[in-house]
Amino acid sequence: MVRITEQLLRKRSEHNELIIGTLEELSLHQEDIERIEHIGNWCRELKILLLQSNLIPRLENLHRLKKLEYLNVALNNIERIENLEPLESLRKLDLTLNFIGELTGVESLRGNYNLRELFLTGNPCTDYPGYREYVITVLPQLEHLDGKEVTRSERLRAAKDFRLLRERIVQHEAQQKIDRDEQKVRVRQCLEEQEQQRDAYADDEKRTSEFWQQKSDHCPETRIQMAKFSRRAGKDRPGGGSCMEKPVERKPRRLFADCGRPYNLNEPRLGFEFRDEPDRYELDLHLYRFLDTSLVEVDAQPNYVRVTIKGKVFQLALRQDIQTDSSSCQRSMTTGHMLVVMPKLNPERIIVPLATNSKATGKQPPSEGLRGTVNIRGICSVDATKATDLDEIPDLI
Asked: Nearest to residue 295, comparing CAs of 33, 18, 85, 77?
């Protein structure tokens, strides 16, 4: 029997940083789960719950999920609709390919006033005459049944003969219960015969082949047996069942090149802003808002800065050395962003020209004296004793 454990939930909540308390969507399909448990206590913020392709026989332990909007339990062993009244936010319910024969169980969904879509395709109750008319009359809030839109005129026609229709539905339910009880006895006897013949098969492979070739009833017990044989075949297959036991070999992480130069890494895939000021470096790292600061480690070295978030490394190489003892780190309580300030060891010198007061000195700034055209003949002073023809002086290029 596969149980719903905390480890399983955290494994399926990787998109939420393995935090299950704030999880809004959970997918537990194809896990051979045989009972719904613990989800209502651990994941109360759920809006979408996918439990299709399991072995769940009963709807239970979901009363705490007040925010649940979509529940998918298709391809399970459910035989009755029950215990869904507390799901006040439920909008879509998928019960496709189960074993629901008690159609009057849909009356328990009258209190789910937000329910808009219901899927019952593949259940025994869908074969009852007047099935659709009965459901759309009992649940006036429905907009779609089995993927087909419910029109106003269709609902009015179905409501005319509702009393007679319900009597017929109850009769079909009683007959279906009798057939189901006979089926349980027949399947139980068949299973007992298989257990008695178990010792006759020396080879398990032959026994498995015999099971898949024989005819069987379409019922919850048969689905359980099929799941057992499928699980056993997966373990016997070469390499089967070992994918969960052996950890996946990851490529070793390299933080430095062979020459010692640090690499730039962003394993947590965080957004960031890096500013190169003349006297310092500033790194604005966009951490998750609700991430605990105790899970963050900052390491500032002369030529690189490294931030480790839950085992994932963010590393940034620096072009100039920094003063590690004067570096600081602060985090915003509003956005969760972290600012790392790293003063440079050899800051760039910036020469700022002093402002001169022309009124106090009585002199004009050089820029103010260079206005208009320039007379090149007055650049060089001409000695009167030496007659020089200024026209022979070449023009300035």
From this structure: 18
Of 118, 77, 123, the residue nearest 100 (C-alpha): 123
Three-state secondary structure readout of 284-327: EECCCCCCCHHHEEEEEECCEEEEEECCEEEEEECCCCECHHHC
* DSSP secondary structure code for residue 108 in this structure: G
pLDDT over 70 (residue 248): no
In whole angstroms, give the CA distance from residue 32 to residue 232: 13
CB within 8 Å of 5: residues ≥ 6 apart: 38
How far is CA 262 from its chain centroid? 32
**Span 41-93, pLDDT tens digits:** 999 999 999 999 999 999 999 999 999 999 999 999 999 999 999 999 999 99
Residues whose CB is less than 8 angstroms from the CB of residue 296 and which lie 6 or more positions away in sequence, other chains included: 287, 307, 308, 309, 338
Q: Do 332 and 318 contact (CB within 8 A), yes or no?
A: no
User: How many angstroms separate the most distant Cα atoms in the chain?
Assistant: 140
- As a whole number, mean pLDDT of residues 279-284 equals 93
